[in-house]
Amino acid sequence: MITSPTFQDVDDRRLSYLSESQRGWLKKARDFANRLTLEDVIQSDKTNVFRRDLFEQACKEGLGALPFGAKYGGSGGDYLSFCLVNEEFGRRCVPIMSSLGVHVLCQEPVYRFGTDSQKEKYLTKSSTGQYLAAFGLTEPGAGSDTAALACKAKVSGDNFILNGTKVFITSGAASDYFIVMARLTENDKDHGITAFIVEKDFPGCKIGQKFDMLGMRGYATCELVFEDCLVPRANLLGEFGAGRKVALSSLAKGRITIAAQATGWAQGALDAAVRILHETFGSSSATESRMALLGEMALQVEASRVLTYQAACAVDRGEGDITLAAMAKIHATDTAMKVSTDALSLTGLIGARPDYLLERIFRDAKAGQIYEGTNQIQRMLIARDLLKK
User: Does residue 190 surpass a pLDDT of 70?
Assistant: First the structure.
């Protein structure tokens, strides 16, 4: 039987500046992760099967709608608390980490742009885990470039008719509803990109290819196919042509969530490297070059953490900064990739054993540099903001 590694608490200098409530959410996330066996974590990666049971457990503990108010079942926590949960889940490779992040990402636009009936129907069930949500933006020919979306919707009486394909949809094959972006036309008038809430059982909504990927496994990632999919008018999210606004309002926060997850990955890789080096060389017999590299890894992990928390705190102050979110996402995901790579170099074949989680973090970290807007695109957003100013 594989035994779970003993995780030391992160050097909790954090506790000096976290509130009592934030420390409580961190403890809840840590306790949740500690209840999972290493076999659970490895098996989700090996079989690529989504753990709906774990997702529902997390929702029952208040994690499914943590940063939202109590009116529709939210837990009333702040965004920094949600980042603490995602960081801890990333550190332990908890199988539902990415799905939980996307689930909250999908609730955000419903809170901001949804009607009262939409909020009552979708948010309440999302908070309890009865509903799982996915975000339908990426297409075969359109990822970071939302202007290139080819998915189309047209008005037809009391319905919209959707046609098109979405790809690499996290949680897609297990979700109950999707936030979908499509280009809307009415009587040959192009209204532009528009947002819809599409339920999995709407006629013409189909699950296409299920992806067996290098990393980010166990998240029911799939293709969504809309073939004359009937969407009631009541499921229009926001106004005609407001889809980019709906999407971008959610993605800015989503990038901070990714930064938190990536900070957790980086910390998990650092934890594994320290453990293996200590077991192999003892506390003082590692070479100076190894020690220097380990020190640099720790420096970059902490820098990612500070930048991520700064971006989360800006959201909590009502000062959400798209550029700061982009910076956090870039730095944290690049750090996760670099630290996991260096950790494998330091530890050799021992570090490639699945029970250290290092090789999984290495594979997942690469995806972090790509999804939620590639890091190349994020750098362009930062530069454009600088030039505007």
Answer: yes
**pLDDT (tens digit per residue) in 323-375:** 999 999 999 999 999 999 999 999 999 999 999 999 999 999 999 999 988 99
Domain contains 189: yes
87 in active site: no
- Of the residues 88, 139, 302, 372, only one is catalytic, namely 372
State the pLDDT at residue 1: 33
pTM higher than the cut 0.90: yes
User: Confidence band (pLDDT; 50, 70, 90) for 276?
Assistant: very high
- Residue 85 located in a structural domain: yes
Instruction: Tell me whether residue 4 is in a domain.
Output: no
- Looking at the structure, do residues 138 and 220 belong to the same domain, yes or no? yes
| Cα end-to-end distance, the chain, whole Å | 58
- 3-state SS string over the chain? CCCCCCCCCCCCHHHHCCCHHHHHHHHHHHHHHHCCCHHHHHHHHHHCCCCHHHHHHHHHCCCCCCCCCHHHCCCCCCHHHHHHHHHHHHHHCCCCHHHHHHHHHHHHHHHHHCCHHHHHHHHHHHHHCCCCEEEECCECCECCCHHHCCCEEEEECCEEEEEEEEEEECCHHHCCEEEEEEEEEECCEEEEEEEEEEECCCCCEEEEEECCCCCCCCCCCEEEEEEEEEEEHHHEECCCCCHHHHHHHHHHHHHHHHHHHHHHHHHHHHHHHHHHHHHHHCCCCCCHHHHHHHHHHHHHHHHHHHHHHHHHHHHHCCCCCHHHHHHHHHHHHHHHHHHHHHHHHHHHHHHCCHHHCHHHHHHHHHHHCCCCCCHHHHHHHHHHHHHHC
Cα-only R_g, the chain: 21
> Dmax of the chain from CA atoms?
75
Domain end among 131, 154, 189: 131
